[in-house]
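Troubleshooting entry. The earlier prediction with zinc ion gave an output that would not parse, so I re-checked the input for stray whitespace and re-submitted. Clean input:
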Amino acid sequence: MSLLPVRSPVPEHPYHRLDGRIMLQVKNAEDAPLADVSPLDSGIVFCGGKAAEDLRALTSGHGFSGPVLIDPAAYERHAATPERPFIVGQASLFNDDELEEELDRLLEQKSLMALTPTGYLRAGDTRSLSAAVHRVTGLNRSDVLLTVPIDSGWLTGNAFPELVSLLRRTPVPKAVVLGASWDPLDRVGAAERLRELFASVPGCGLLRTDLAAIDAMVHGADFAAIGDSPSARHTRPPRPEGGGPRARSSPAVLIPRMLTYRRGEEFATVLAEADPPRCPCGFCASWMRRRGLRDDGRPLTSFTTELEKADAHAHNLAVWSALWSWVQDVDSRAQGLSRWKRLCDRAVQEHRSLNEVARSPGGGFEVPQALKAWAGPV
Ligand SMILES: [Zn+2]
């Protein structure tokens, strides 16, 4: 059974289709395992420059029938201001409300709901957040999701209670996106506050994240999306000139027992003298079978170059889908929480075990701040 109660008052409301789902968020469709996404339990959020095109190719070519959203990701390029909380173009000849026009365009492009083009909300900027909330509430539409792209400083700063209070009073469904130059949950206390937010605010999901999606879901989020690449797992404070060219590097691999992503090459180097941990996920098992190898799982030290990027993304999806499936296959929320906490506890221990066999003295794997919080007392 689904862990989460159905919160939508009207079952046919499009928001209802997102309930209980963790979707795949994709910035570059090229390396994304779109064909492996379950239309029954999951969905897809496109956020790149080609989002509308990618959505069209997916629904026409592959006939994907699950929920699909377009995140216009205006927060990547612009910060919100009280005068301009949403980043929209000029109104057209036929419509003098440019925000409504932008939202209608997203729906025409077949996004299940229209995510608002909210600018990046700098830490503590309650005036811009308040302006966004007022404007979107005034639209009085049932097909809109208010994007709330917050700098992670909101979570640890003094304005956190105001953030919760404003979002609690917003009668429109909300999609939180976290922003920071590095890992948004790296600061002490950030993961705990994120939990508090989802436990306190109804009608809310978490997009563009990592395994924080599972922690959010067991604490009250309605839906979430995990990025297939590092740039789709959080946002950064906006830079008008945009990002530089993509660095070529080994892919980030989700290490199932550590519940963290590691660069494939770094992971292989640190464990060069150890018996490599193996992954028996659906993707890795079939990878072994295709090569006529013993089906005891693919070595997690085998994702070392750019060439393994698509494989890593398919493996990552298979792993977190299985994790979420296990955590939510329970009779009560308390059981789901306890399963998730147990997994996190073991992941902390796994860091210690791998450090004992790691090549670098003192160990190469530090337990991430968020994982420590997830494994701590609930
Ligand atoms: Zn795998």
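This one parsed fine. The first helix runs from residue 51 to 61.
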